[in-house]
Amino acid sequence: MRLSYLWSRAFLSTRFVLWLLFICNFLGTVYGYIWYDSQLKYTWLNHPHWQIIFVPDSPTASLFFTLSLLFLLFPKQLGKLNMLRTLIEGLAVVTSVKYGVWAVSMIFAGAFQGGGLVWQDWMLVASHLAMAVEALLFVRLYKFGTTMLICAGVWTLLNDTVDYTYGVYPWLPEKLWDNVNEVMIFTFILTLVSIFIGWLALKFRKR
């Protein structure tokens, strides 16, 4: 099997691959929400309840990608939900790229300042990089356009604003507790970069 075939539209659209990725991402999403259990409980008890939706960033990004696979698995059954489909696809791309890269960056930034790396960190690095890669690979199968990409970007910027205005950003490694302002700036810039990458992916998806 040629290596290029593994990244092709034909291979990615096979039901085996779609189901395999759906199951893996579904389980990863569930695990991600469990990972955020302590912060979700803390936010619920100490913040206005509406803020809780902005807490689990990475699992929600994974959820968007998982839902996007349903539209590829059941195109006829879900064909009437085209607007919802394209919105979810746009969100899947922007948030998966953004939070995939963000999580890896925070792990290594904490390690660079003297924090240790344990096996869970390497697991998170691998899974979050996979989030970013798979979302970009599937752009060629998605139907969303610039409008939904902008909507996804606006949502992600809103998420950033809530995170750093009300202090509900993902809990950082201890070594980064003194660098919240720098993390905030990096986060907003990364969102803009993710939107741009999504736009580039749209431009090249038919090639």
TrEMBL record:
<feature type="transmembrane region" description="Helical">
    <location>
        <begin position="149"/>
        <end position="171"/>
    </location>
</feature>
<keyword id="KW-0812">Transmembrane</keyword>
<feature type="transmembrane region" description="Helical">
    <location>
        <begin position="86"/>
        <end position="110"/>
    </location>
</feature>
<feature type="transmembrane region" description="Helical">
    <location>
        <begin position="122"/>
        <end position="142"/>
    </location>
</feature>
<feature type="transmembrane region" description="Helical">
    <location>
        <begin position="183"/>
        <end position="202"/>
    </location>
</feature>
<protein>
    <submittedName>
        <fullName>Putative membrane protein YpjA</fullName>
    </submittedName>
</protein>
<keyword id="KW-1133">Transmembrane helix</keyword>
<feature type="transmembrane region" description="Helical">
    <location>
        <begin position="12"/>
        <end position="36"/>
    </location>
</feature>
<dbReference type="Pfam" id="PF07187">
    <property type="entry name" value="DUF1405"/>
</dbReference>
<dbReference type="InterPro" id="IPR009845">
    <property type="entry name" value="DUF1405"/>
</dbReference>
<feature type="transmembrane region" description="Helical">
    <location>
        <begin position="48"/>
        <end position="74"/>
    </location>
</feature>
<keyword id="KW-0472">Membrane</keyword>
